Amino acid sequence: MSFVLKSTEERARLWKSMFARELPEMPFHVWPETGDPQKVRYLAAWQPPENLAEVFPNLEVLFSVGAGVDQLNLASIPESVRVVRMMEPGLAEGMIEYVLWAVLSYHRNMFHYARQQREHVWQGEPNVSSGLFRVGVMGMGALGTPVLEKLSQFGYVCNGWSRSRHDIQGIRSYAGPDELDAFLASTDILVCLMPLTDATKGILNRELFTKLPKGACLINCGRGGHLVQDDLLWALDTGQLSQAVLDVTTPEPLPADHPFWDHSLIALTPHIASSSRAATGGEMILKNIVQYENGMEMIGEIDRSFGY
Fold it and tell me: Which residues form the catalytic set?
């Protein structure tokens, strides 16, 4: 059996030496070189090659090199192939840092002061306690849960919403469609960290925005496909939302004439909130291969029926 990596030169260089040290008996190939495709049992990629079943007829495990799998066409991946998303510590650490920056920047009026600077205005606002802000995170998975735990340590009132209930000390958990409205009504700063699925595509829309307290803030670190862009512009222009922080868009990058670029109430970053680190990502892949070979559960394996 053999392993194929279809990714960056940095990962290829580092992972090749890691595999040689930890799994010397397993041939390591870097796409487009694959060795005998009949012997390939493991593939790590952001986007696998087309006609996957024909290219690697005996593939057993597909590892995503990112935290999400929405870039994959799961319908084109044989049911026999197990799909595993990246679950290395650097992903959570990066997301915690980004969301904390965005929440603190909104709480302490930093986006407002940046607008004032452009207008040559010097006018301070009273500082208020973090405990007066209710932060709601949509998606309580491997990223959402540690983000909520860190925000709670800073004194924010923290709520989470997902398809199933979670028991996290100091965090109120809302579950399922029946509890979404109550979650939104209790959210001053909404953070989207959900996977993109058929059920969540376009969920950040006008109907949802109207259920938030007037003047709320949106932070989207999930996927651009979660957001209905015209509805966000409506919400900002009517005052239903007072600020948006977007790390993801559709498409990426946005066209040069897109209204998001110059909107005074939108802060844009180029999909940099979190990314897997080559070294720890390689360690996680190696750990999962060993666990798989020993009949154990792999960390990050997705439920194909839900897509995450």
Answer: 223, 271
Question: Which single residue is written with the structure tokens 């966000």?
Answer: 232
Comparing CA positions, the residue from 62, 63, 60, 64 lying closest to residue 80 is: 60
Q: Which 8-state DSSP code applies to residue 296?
A: P
Alpha helices of the chain — where are they, by DSSP H? Answer: 9-22, 52-55, 89-107, 110-118, 144-153, 180-185, 206-210, 229-238, 278-293
pLDDT value, residue 73: 87
Q: Where are the strands (E) in 13-78, listed by range? A: 28-30, 40-45, 61-64
Other beta carbons less than 10 A from residue 299's beta carbon: 15
Phi-psi map region of 188: left, alpha, beta (phi>0 left; psi -120 to 50 alpha)? alpha
pLDDT tens string 131-161: 999 999 999 988 999 999 999 999 999 999 9
Residue 308 clears pLDDT 80, i.e. is over it: no
Within a 10 A sphere around the Cβ of 1, how many other Cβ atoms?
Answer: 13
Q: Which residue has the tokens 């960056």?
A: 8
| pTM metric for this prediction | 0.87
Q: Are 74 and 83 within 8 A, CB to CB?
A: yes
